[in-house]
Amino acid sequence: MPDPTTEIILHNYPQSPVAEKVRVAFGIKQLSWRNVEIPRLPPKPMLTALTGGYRRTPVMQIGADIYCDSQCILRELERRHPTPTFMPTSEPGLMWCLSRYTDGDLFSLSVKIVLGSAGDDLPSDFAEDRGRLYIGKDWAEGLKRANEQLPHLVAQMRAPLSWMDAQLRDGRSFLLGSDPAAIDAQMYHCIWFIRGRWDGGPEMLSEFPDLTRWEENVRALGHGTSHAMRAEDAIDQAKNTEPASETGATPHDPQDLRVGTLVAVSPDVEGGEQPVEGKVRYADAETIAILRTCDEVGTVCVHFPRSAYRVSVT
Length: 314
Description:
Elements lengths: L8 E4 L4 H13 L2 E6 L7 H7 L7 E4 L2 E4 L1 H11 L11 H27 L5 H11 L4 H10 L1 H18 L14 H16 L3 H5 L3 H12 L4 E4 L2 H9 L8 E2 L12 E6 L8 E8 L3 E8 L3 E8 L3 E5 L1
Parallel strand pairs: 1-2, 2-5, 4-10, 6-8
Antiparallel strand pairs: 1-3, 3-4, 7-8, 7-11, 8-9, 9-10
Helix pairs in contact: 1-8, 2-11, 4-6, 4-7, 4-8, 5-6, 7-10
């Protein structure tokens, strides 16, 4: 029987590009994990019971520790499973800085191309949900502009694709050399999304032969080994274990966060999302982890990045 305090559970759905990033990360480390498939659209009652309201995809669970956002997920995977490493060169700080571009502006551009190109074919409920999530409260106007400006958006995408193609032109297998790294998964999820969800994606990507070769190398890494799991069983696992992550708060926090401080955490965008409330268990420059208790799941610790997230003291 797997140890419930170390077993990796990923709450995700197959079409999610950000979940694909994490699935590739599992492939890099050749990990075994449990796959809980969640709905593509809210409500997601079993997921939000675990997270306290956070509804983005994916979420990783290990016992009663819940990791939101791929930043947190990849850092925790590297901590628990350091070999093979996500950081095969001596520039991990630069790779994390670059990930803020791949997960931010580059992913946002990918979303606008995919959603904008769909036009009126996009189901209205999906358009409203994802438009609000990624574009903001003026999502309808934003999707209309994306449709009208599609050639401009594609032109903006070709520049980073050409940079990646040039990086790979010396025949290297992955972006940093012979070994796959976190940045391969972080770049790949945008390319995977463009190729699979935009009709014009395959033709545009064919312009970049070394990028296409790299795509095949990343795809060949696979997703590790997964086994299906029911959401109810994942909740039971959380309820029957205790949070095992570190406790503490580092000095120099600009918000003076300390263990026990009541806070609310949410993505730092106007996406109409419910903040997650709880007491600080851990805080440093990269991470905020909060304890919360409810009848459905017991006591859990929910982990978020500090970068791109807003922490409000309540």
